[in-house]
Amino acid sequence: MTPEAWSGGLWPYFALILFGFLPSEVWRMLSIIVGHGIDEKSELLEWVRAVATALLAGVVANILLTPSGALATVPLVARVGAMVIGLGVFALTRRSVIAGVAAGEAAIVSAAWWFAG
């Protein structure tokens, strides 16, 4: 590559790969190597699943109860309703995460549109 290409507009992409992608990729590869020998039913993985589930529940509660940006304009009852719809579709479609997320997202977007107009 010529120096003109780097000074023009390619350096942000290089920086993104160097500082954003590669550091996380190293940890992903290490986790594959280390995790390959761990039994799926071990107490360690049960603990990891419990912590991951608790973190996800915390993030969902935070978004639901103290939203920011455009979501803050949607009333709490509409946000809770969208979550209930998403969970209901998830349960009715044999635990399809995609269907549950799509239904919940459609519900919250509809609610935002309804309350904005």
Index terms:
single chain; about 120 residues; mainly alpha; about 80% helix; about 0% strand
Question: What is the terminal separation in angstroms?
Answer: 52 Å
Residues in helices, as a percent range: over 70%
Largest sheet: none
Class inferred from helices and paired strands: mainly alpha
Unreliable segments (pLDDT under 50, ≥5 consecutive)?
none
Q: Number of helical segments?
A: 4
Q: What would the average pLDDT be, to the nearest integer?
A: 89
Description:
This protein is mostly helical. The model has no long low-confidence stretch (mean pLDDT 89). Helix 3 runs antiparallel to helix 4. 79% of the residues lie in helices and 0% in strands. The longest helix has 33 residues. The protein starts with a helix and ends with a helix.
In short:
The protein has 117 residues and is mainly α.
Question: How would the blueprint of this fold be written?
Answer:
Elements: H1 3-35, H2 43-65, H3 76-92, H4 97-116
